[in-house]
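Complex 713.
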Amino acid sequence: DDPFFGDNENAALALMDHDYEYSLVFDVSQRLLDSERIYLRMEGLDTLADGWLNGNKLLEADNMHRCWEVETKGLLRLKDNSLLIVFHSPTRYIADAYRADPDYGGASDALNGFVYLRKAHYMLGWDWGARLPDCGIWRDVSLLGVCKGRIGNVLVRQRHQDGKVELSIKATLTDVTTENIHVEASLITPQGEALPVGDSVLLDNPELWWPNGYGAQPLYTVNVALLDADGHTLDQWRRNIGLRTMTVQNQKDEWGQSFCYEVNGVSIFAMGADYIPEDNLLSRVTPERTRALLESAKLANFNTVRVWGGGYYPSDSFYDDCDELGLLVWQDFMFACGEYKLTPEFERTICAEIRDNVLRLRHHPSLGLWCGNNENEMFEATGRGLNTYTKKYEYIRLFEDIIPQIVHTYSPDTFYWPSSPSSGGKFDCPNDESRGDVHYWDVWHGGKPFTAYRNFLFRFVSEFGFQAYPHPKTLEAVTSVQERDPFSYEMEKHQRNGQANGKILMSVAQMYPYPKDLNSLCYTSQILQADAMRYGVEHWRRNRGRCMGAIYWQLNDCWPVISWSSIDYFGRWKALHYAAKRFFAPLLLSCKEEGELTQMQSVNDQLAQPVENRFQLCISNETMEEKECTVCWSLRDASSNRLMEEQTKLTVSPLCSQWLPEKKLPDMDRRRQYIAYQLQVDHQIVSQGSVIMTRPKHFLFLDPKLTAAVSND
Ligand code: BMA
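Predicted structure with beta-D-mannopyranose bound:
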């Protein structure tokens, strides 16, 4: 049965206590048999797999994140080859490993022992994920016949100087058996013109690649061919690249230590969300589905996605899409919220994993940075783990020595950051407000009101989030009719964060009237989530320069669930995703209002001073152009009649935020009046919004008497 429905998850999980076999009988061509070497290449085996070819043991795999290539020359015949792959139970394996050494732990929502297996952690449960480990062959399998040699990998490097770009292309060959082979490289420009390349090529008029919002995403194609003396192609490597410099500024400054993407010399304010795997059943993640999700990210004005470390390394098409859409990728390595025991076997397998993925992904223009892990360094500071010298040593070895060395060797032009969050490593206050990136969870996990976001001027927020129910239709797809109550058994199976239902209801109580049914609870929770994220992002964008990134948790879901996502499992946008389109707009007018929300807790407070109604507008210009802006604001009654109005014209420089003078409205009737504001450029409204000075539950909204009808005509 559908493992996502009701509590079917339990039965599906029990199936994973068994082993499974894949078998295939296949024929091959004489041409393949005649090759000097024949490899069976498996790009993804999930996870513990033993393989036999024609009765010969070929393989013992232990890592779903890496690629396996085994020699089969001499084992194959023309007809009726049999391939058998046995997958061993991942749940039994981690349970045994945990029993043997319960000392290494991690996120409590995942099954105990998850850190012992190189399998996407989220599959074993997370605070938004079911315990539904998939199993099997999850990426392509092929037979490769090699004669004379083949291309192992290709390193493309760029040198940008005086408006020109020098491109060098270096192919590393393997399995070479003759000297009579040579490499030929060519470059195809975005216009389709083919340029021959020796070891390098100088481009006089390079078309630069930019993140979304800063310019276009022209792609050049690099073609590398390995030829024999007769000009026959033995092997080929073809990838798209983009011409750009890409680094991260990380220097001491007046506020601490900067953290900021710099593309083509331009400081980028990173805007986007954290990406998690799209499904528990990997075969359902198609390129089309991923493309649609990433297009939704672009539609909401994202320029960044962070691939979170508890999933798996996405497919090539994910990065091709990011290249085309202009989405910078913050790439975590696949380690999250855990302690890892650094045995020699573990070191061997993760080294192969890191190398495979770095080689696969390093050429993508969207690749912004490599990051060691998610929250492992912070584990120590928060007392959740890494509490012995051995564990600390293992952490440092892995994330500050072994992995960065591999990155340095194979991806020398990409920035490496040891962990998210981090201040640069060595357990030096990883979540420091004034250095590096920050995960700010005091609002959700710490129960603070979302106004707390304004108390911090982080340098780069890579996680902060607020849960909301998905659209009722999404919940209906996975619950029985009689279970449509937020606290029902089936609904609680679809809420994996302990106290979260209570938190949602508490936030509703702070801000909104009592929802009349489940539909209005879903709706209200979504409005709250959108407001919470807007509150944070607008504040950090207003402080551009000191703060240079706002990445909210989380973009998507891997099953139908109540979570922090802005797009649910079925691709339905929550209110937050619509709000993101506005608060990530390249040109944003936002309003820092100060009213009851920031000056009083309850209507019965004894206040030392009366609430002062004041506000200040700010323009955040994330474009590369100077903008001639007209800002209008008005005080309006609940029927939207204008009671007061002001217009200001101003010129806003590129890549900066600019405040307008603060306004005070001592006579404003907070329960009946609101402030509306608009930003116009060339007589077009490019950004607008409204604020009230009380909590929404206390505002005397009028019934707009709207009706809607749907007809098929
Ligand atoms: C963050 C993430 C995840 C988690 C999320 C919500 O810290 O890195 O581990 O799902 O918080 O709690």
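The CA atoms of residues 600 and 608 lie 10 Å apart.
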